[in-house]
Amino acid sequence: MKVACVGGGPxxxxxxxxxxxxxxxxxxxxxxxxxxxxxxxxxxxxxRGLLDRxxxxxxxxxxxxxxxxxxxRDGVAHVGDRATRHQGxxxxxxxxxxxxxxxxxxxxDLGVRLEFERxxxxxxxxxxxxxxxxxGAGSALRTHHAxxxxxxxxxxxxxxxxxxxxKAFDAFTFAFVExxxxxxxxxxxxxxxxxxxxxxxxxxxxxxxxxxxxADEAEALVLLEKLFADVLxxxxxxxxxxxxxxxxxPVFRTVTNRTWSRGNLVLLGDAAHTTHYSIGAGTTLALxxxxxxxxxxxxxxxxxxxLAHYERERRAALLPVQSAARLSAQWYENLPRYVHLxxxxxxxxxGQRHSPLLPYLPPRxxxxxxxxxxxxxxxxxxxxxxxxxxxxxxQARRLAxxxxxxxxxxxxxxxxHRG
Length: 419
Prior knowledge:
Blueprint: E1 2-6, H1 10-22, E2 27-32, E3 43-47, H2 48-57, H3 59-67, E4 70-79, E5 82-95, H4 96-109, E6 113-116, E7 130-133, H5 140-144, H6 146-149, E8 152-165, E9 172-179, E10 182-192, E11 195-202, H7 204-209, H8 217-227, H9 229-232, E12 237-238, E13 251-256, E14 261-262, E15 265-267, H10 282-299, H11 303-333, H12 343-351, H13 363-375, H14 377-400
Parallel strand pairs: 1-2, 1-7, 2-6, 4-9, 7-15
Antiparallel strand pairs: 3-5, 4-5, 8-11, 8-12, 8-13, 9-10, 10-11, 14-15
């Protein structure tokens, strides 16, 4: 089979690896619009479950990814002058440049052709048996056929900016700072000894009140370095060149599609779906898409059947994740409801922000009920069983209603995010 993967991010590169491993006779080309070695962003975060699946699908690239990753177990929350630290699940971070270099080298070793500085638009798709749109949330291939795909774009409320810092955080770090215009907060996680990713977010009133809507990039960085000086320990923040900082503070846009394929064209990763950055799942979901698509192509020789199976499998798997992402975004949009709690309670509810029940109960009551459930094995089992079911049900109902994402919306380019 001749396959063209449009987009040289983790999704497109990993799919090319899996397809060549399955059948070396496949003719696979990855088309990337940017020069080799150039990428946006700093670090990628992921969890043990993904690493285990990478080892199952391609041990060679998995070992390289694990070797170049940092890991942490602790989470730290700074709220004003208060701080609390808790141990959680093992997390990993790797530089985005490093991850792409590992995947590109592995793809080349397997015989994949990598063509850089080759932009592909919907008007000039490559000639192939299968064309994979792995070109991000603003996918040109998907946008060209937006009516067919039923692309829906739903904007969030808060503004955010993606930054880097030379501060190497040793834990997943949250920092909440109160200003005269409301709260502003940052998520920081390390990806190597050279530094960390630092995402800053705030409500629209805070963004405008602090002048971030008018500040140029340098002015914005100076202000943010002062606000987060306690956690940065004197380290600077860095941004990608983007002119005025106001243009680099979008609201997050959730992309959904009514269908993921059109003839021999199929959507992969952020081109098919996006989830709010606060759950750190973007890269994981893209790689899992590649795993499922490659398996469907191997097991089902009829292309339309394989693409339909891939879509069904991934839609079902995404329901609880999409629910968690939506609830996580809403938790931050309603931060004043939680931020004045004692630090341990606030951090506990930060970890519980994916719960469908939390928005409907007084925060302190939810905290007490959750602590009680944690002490009783029967209640713990009920919570583990019912939580994912409730999340899937709620998300499925949202997708089925006219008000929810997933129905045709405003097609067009979307500022990309790859977690």
